Amino acid sequence: MNLSIFRQQDSFPSFVADKLSSVSIDYKEKYQCIQFAGKIGTNRLGAGVVLLLNYKKNNHDQAEYFFQLIKRSDKVSQAGDISCPGGMLHPFTDKILSHLLATRIVSTMPDHLSNFIQSHDKETINLVHLFLTNALREAWEEIGLNPLRVLFLGALPCYSLILFTKTIFPLVCLVPEPLEFKLNAEVEKILEIPISTFFEGSNYAFLEIESPFGNSSPTYSNQYPCIVLTDDQGKQEILWGATFNIIMHFLRIISDNTLPLITSSKIIKKVLSQSYISGNSK
After folding, report:
1. pTM of this prediction?
2. Residue 16 CA to chain centroid, in angstroms?
């Protein structure tokens, strides 16, 4: 793939929106599963997250598009993980806000997103509005993102977690201008990752997770592909798990599946504790 597209400020949003307009999304099916789980007394939750894009200069003083992600603080579950801003759906609140914001959100869509609307049924579009509202509400709470100052580019298929009995509904948005974020206690910091990072095979590794599940359960290890990052202070950060997979799915769509094969021999170890699940680290 010609990576110069990531440096084209004006044409990249249209490029992404056109790619996402034809993607099959499973919001209706996954939301029905969540509703059915509630009826039979099981606990399957839905969460909207926003995959934020921003245009800025990289470390080589070249401008390109970045992912704007958050590092979760030790006040919440999955502490230390890198994730997309967002969180749990509040059905009653988010439905009301969805109706209030629907016109404003649709009006921010470029003309080419009419293809997205035309290619999905009304129920799916309503769910996209619902989870976009959910994701933007949570992003406002977490990082102070103004929901009226982002540009919606499209939706990605859901990603279901097993350990947390949660289904993630990812929405792709553009921050068209520099913003000053205000982090709450749930967020340690903002991480900005150039999209080109994912097209360099040397940035990949495998994360070996060791995690005990209860006193009687054996500890087991698994290896997961990840991206190894170095922040502005020289500290190593690891992008793995759901957020890694959501981003990889997005990049496969927009690059016509031309990401490098992950063949790294680099192994990084990480030990998870019970507080990783509960969030009660103190």
Report:
1. 0.91
2. 15
